[in-house]
Specification:
heterodimer, A: alpha/beta, Aspartate Aminotransferase, domain 1, seven-stranded mixed sheet, 15 helices, 17 strands, 39% helix, B: alpha+beta, binds pyridoxal-5'-phosphate
Chain lengths: 418, 155
């Protein structure tokens, strides 16, 4: 048994070598329906590099026990790994301290935490602002809060290209606005929102800002000190890490004021039947046995992404996006939804009047995996007058050849539907 | 090249019903209606029925958005159930459901030979488990309408 937790993977200094990267992801050599898998659904969940899988296997095989409890060696080791992961996440987001990082079960868990705990500081008539392109995870928890306390939800609009309308947003800010909760990158349109402007305007109004970074952390990265937002939420599985772990970063002044979300073990300082006192953040918000091994996997994912280089991944995805926008837009009958000026590697489209499900089924037979549906953003679908779209999304391992494979597979749709 | 399973799924009849759905309207005199919602994909169909006192279907129609499979299925269903009693339609749905999931034992057709023969074009969904709900959405909605519920989901 080893005491050393070795998260680091070899650092690449060579040019962006997508083929080498692909070899690190076991799933990418799968065949589907007898064809090589063309995986264009990373925005829903990314495939995992061997480094993540191995780190988790190692953690289960030789470093596993419950955390924060045992005084014995293994528990101590597992606790160290878990807390090292927290430190790594803090560093990755440029947080000032690991104490600002709360692990949750997913981005969804983080939204519900904030809606509950921060939400308990709000009163009837208070307002929060979301945007029309939010994922249901950044809508429904606020609606539940609205049902409990009578807050109001205002919706910031976008234009037909999918650009966030900052002037319209500004008009929504008022004396009662208690939180702005908008996405950093839209999971449907790929739109990158003007996060700095949003923070500047909201703070000018004395309003804290939460960003949904589920896509943003993957395609753009974040420096929370530079951005100066108040909360930033994301999820492990889209950053090439495991499912079952999400991250809430919060400014200490907020986290400290917020009451607990869930109650249970680990989050208390003293329990009696008369009165229980709670620990300081982040422990206050991590009731029960946390995602121990998932944290190790997430740390390994961060190491992997960092080694490849977030900026180089972004550049690669940008190049693919430009290519895909040209290649697909050139196809007869294909309508791209989302042409924002600032856009990440996510392309939603309609193909003639063929329903997205039919598109997805047909191209799946060519091994091409895209997402079809409302993408957990039904209000946004309504905004564009559709019930569903097909969506191709890119990751660090996506190639031009895969974009071509999508285009070729789409011809098959035309062949069937005429 | 199109593989056989796909050809089987998207037969001409289905493509035709999908593009030119029959009974795609909202009858003013409908006595029952229900929304069929597939929460996974957001597809929504409203099925309208006009029943007589003996629970026979005098008219059936639908409106909504959906994929080729769900629209074709709604189109064929509304054509087929007119003139039948709710009890008959219920039996027909049972057989149809089995056909779609591949559990059909080919047992007695209860006098529905013609209908089942027509519905066979939908059975290509067997090879596409994710699409079975598309084929059955309208039928679920019709059941809900007949039972006086406002909505059905495929969940
Ligand atoms: C923009 C956005 N927000 C939130 C989520 C929710 O993430 P999770 O399902 O991991 O909680 C997703 C992914 O589904 C997303 O794309």
């Amino acid at each position: 048994m080893t005491n050393v937790v070795n998260f680091t993977e070899p650092v690449r200094t060579d040019a962006f070598d997508v083929e080498a990267i692909r070899r690190d992801f076991p799933a990418l050599s799968l065949a589907v329906n007898g064809k090589p898998l063309v995986f264009l659904d990373s925005a829903a969940s990314a495939q995992k590099p061997r480094a993540v899988i191995d780190a988790m296997t190692r953690a289960y095989e030789s470093q596993y026990a419950n955390v924060h409890r045992g005084t014995y060696h293994l528990s101590q080791l597992a606790t160290e790994n878990y807390e090292n992961a927290r430190a790594k996440v803090a560093q990755f987001m440029n947080a000032t301290s690991p104490d600002e990082i709360v692990f949750t079960h997913s981005a969804t868990g983080a939204f519900n935490l904030v809606a509950h705990s921060f939400g308990s500081l709000l009163e009837e008539g208070d307002e929060i602002i979301v945007s029309v392109m939010e994922h249901h995870a950044n809508i429904v928890p606020w609606q539940l809060l609205r049902d409990r306390t009578g807050i109001e939800i205002k919706v910031a609009p976008i234009d037909d290209a999918g650009n966030f309308l900052i002037d319209e947003f500004e008009k929504l800010l008022g004396p009662k606005t208690k939180l702005v909760a908008v996405t950093h990158v839209s999971n449907v349109l790929g739109t990158v929102t003007p996060v700095k402007e949003i923070v500047r305007l909201a703070h000018g109004n004395g309003t804290p800002v939460l960003f949904d970074g589920a896509q943003g952390i993957v395609h753009e990265g974040v420096d929370v000190q530079d951005l100066d937002c108040d909360f930033y939420v994301w999820t492990g599985h889209k950053l090439y890490g495991p499912t079952g772990i999400g991250v809430l970063w919060g400014k200490p002044e907020w986290l400290e004021r917020m009451p607990p979300f869930e109650g249970g073990g680990d989050m208390i300082s003293l329990v009696t039947f008369e009165k229980t006192t709670y620990r300081e953040p982040p422990a206050r918000f991590e009731a029960g046995t946390p995602p121990i091994v998932e944290a190790v996997g997430l740390a390994a994912a961060i190491d992997y992404v960092t080694a490849v280089g977030l900026d180089r991944i972004a550049a690669h995805e940008k190049e693919l996006l430009d290519y895909a926008m040209l290649r697909l837009a050139g196809m007869d009958g294909l309508r791209i939804i989302g042409r924002a000026q600032q856009k990440a590697g996510i392309v939603s489209f309609e193909f003639g009047d063929v329903h997205a499900h039919d598109v997805a089924t047909i191209i799946d037979s060519a091994g091409v995996a895209v997402r079809a549906g409302h993408h957990c953003a039904q209000p946004l679908m309504e905004r564009f007058g559709v019930t569903s779209t097909s969506r191709a999304s890119f990751g660090m391992y996506t190639t031009r050849a895969e974009v071509d494979a999508l285009a070729v597979a789409l011809e098959k749709v035309r062949e069937i539907f005429g | 090249m199109i593989d056989d399973d796909l050809r089987d799924l998207y037969q001409e009849v289905i493509l035709d019903h999908g593009k030119n759905p029959r009974n795609f309207r909202h009858p003013e005199d409908a006595s029952h209606e229900a929304l069929g919602n597939n929460p996974l994909c957001g597809d929504r169909l409203t099925v309208y029925l006009r029943l007589d006192e003996g629970r026979n279907i005098l008219d059936a129609a639908f409106e909504g958005k959906g994929c080729a499979i769900s629209i074709a299925s709604a189109s064929m269903m509304t054509d087929m159930v007119k003139g039948k009693s709710l009890a008959e339609v219920k039996k027909l749905f049972e057989r149809f459901h089995k056909m779609c999931t591949g559990d059909d034992d080919g047992g007695i057709a209860d006098g529905f030979e013609d209908e089942l023969e027509k519905l066979k074009v939908m059975s290509g969904v067997r090879q596409f488990p994710m699409r079975v709900k598309c084929a059955t959405l309208a039928w679920h909605a019709m059941n809900a309408a007949a039972e006086g519920e406002d909505a059905a989901t495929t969940e």
